[in-house]
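Q: Could you predict the 3D structure of Probable transcriptional regulatory protein Pla108_00600?
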Amino acid sequence: MAGHSHWANIAHKKAAIDAKRGKVWSKLSRAIIVAAKMGGSDPDTNIKLRYAINDAKAISMPKDNIERAIAKGAGEAGGDNYEEIVYEGQGPSGVMVMVEILTDNRNRTAPEIRKIFEKGGGKLGATGCAAWMFSRKGILTIPADQTDEESLMEIVLEAGADDVSLQGDVFQVTCPVEAFNDLCATVEAAEGLTAESQSLGYLPNDTVTLSGDDAQKAIRLMEALDDHDDVQKAAANFEVDEATLAAMGG
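A: Sure. Here are the predicted structure tokens for Probable transcriptional regulatory protein Pla108_00600:
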């Protein structure tokens, strides 16, 4: 929607800043280690590892870092046992939130996430309280200066994409989870196209538009969740008008 920015786009810009100080790299390294430990070091046969590597490449994580994480995971018979959890909750102004967690201590992480929600004006909810508002999708973003919408649609629809939309200065391409790898390969092979990000995530089926103090509260909650070491990704069903985002320095 023109004049508005979804949380996913705001978060992507923040991730680029976080990557410079290694915070995102640390989280993605953990995801790669766990995927390699669970399914082996070959991304051709280990789809979870392939997705984790895609996420890492999308924010320019160095190849050496990726390879070290794979080697560590593949050679780690013991060590920490990480658990994947999805928490659901409600933020300020009725915003619905999905939080993907990778933790080695559920008993530590759960109360910490609950506290973040409470401090942010929301509450951690029961399983299913927010999931109905979201769909699990493959998501790619492609800079709008690389192509036009019609040309992009011709390329990606044949590869399984189900939607292309202009989100600020990028095109967002979405697809069913099962089409994600084919779509990524198609975009990589297309002349003149380079995905800015590519990952699996939760997309809201509908959104609420926030402005002013409501928007600031929602963004602060999401940033606090993103900053937690055990949080891999956090998704929400709100968007912010560009005037408010500009006033916040976004």
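Q: Anything worth pointing out?
A: The domain at 83-132+206-247 is CATH 3.30.70.980 (Alpha-Beta Plaits).
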